[in-house]
Amino acid sequence: MVRDGAAAPRPALPAPTNTVVAGGPGRGLAPPPDAGAGTRGRGFLGMDDEALLARMCRAPVERIERNRGGSTVSFRVWLAGGMRALFKPQQRAEVANFRAELAAYRLSRLLEQRRVPPACGRTMPREMLQRAADSSGDTAFSQRVMTELLGRTEEVPGAMLFWVPGQLEPVPGTDRYAQLLDASQPLAPDDVTLAAGLSNLLLFDFLEDNVDRWSGGNILRQHAAPGQPPGEMLFMDNGASFSAINGGLGARPSDQNARLDRVQRFSPTFLRALRRLTAASLQTAMAEDPLGPCLSETQVQAVLTRRDRIVAHADEVAAAHPGGGVFPFP
Hints:
Layout: E1 20-21, H1 49-58, E2 61-66, E3 75-79, E4 84-89, H2 98-110, E5 119-125, H3 126-134, H4 139-148, E6 155-162, E7 168-170, H5 177-180, H6 192-208, E8 220-222, H7 253-262, H8 268-276, H9 279-286, H10 297-320
Antiparallel strand pairs: 1-2, 2-3, 3-4, 4-6, 5-6, 7-8
Helix pairs in contact: 2-9, 3-4, 6-7, 6-10
């Protein structure tokens, strides 16, 4: 499945032709408190997360159009000052839970992963979204916006996601994850970066219960210019996450456990961050979004249940391989 928000590779956006121009400064704004004030430091792709969030949460919407690609409803947005974003509104599709996108970003920050694009909860006028859908020239999409968007008022809540600059491309070699993360097999120096990214991605996906990662086209990085090293692996598309069913083990526990069991190489730094997670730290992080808590108490407890499963698995693998090879990453 192609990622909502961009095909891979993704060209630079031209000036839109079928675009709705917002009707005045501040239109569609939900007045937020300071976004993300609880976590500072190096941000997504080395940028300043606080500055990005301030604009994503508050900047007036200048233009909006339908986002093509993906199976869910989303919109490309141009904010005042030149920032581009992707708006994923609240909708009926189970794999498009906008609060899961917000929670994934907050969780990534809490774990110091910085692999999930910044995301901010906002509301947008239903009428603006419908006009953008109507101007797309796609009658079916216009009808979907009319019938699938949710919200109790004329303002539709959703996730405003930072638009990753440049082209995106699939990360090559991800289908080798079982071999790369097998502690009994040698790990070539050229494969260390890929293996480290895959280890953290699989653990992060298990933690959030992302059941859509391996459906196709969802493991991406920025396309590198000639002579430059490849971009780091990005943890995008998290709308099908944070189930709290099956005793906290998620929507597809058999599939998720099978992937987790393949992970036999770990980052000690990531494991330490996982061990530090508490209900209080998760609740604090999830409450920082302008639209309120991203996860319920039940979902928070499910995250901790899955965390405990990861930690127990890592301890078991380390005990089974006393000779080393289990912690080759920073």
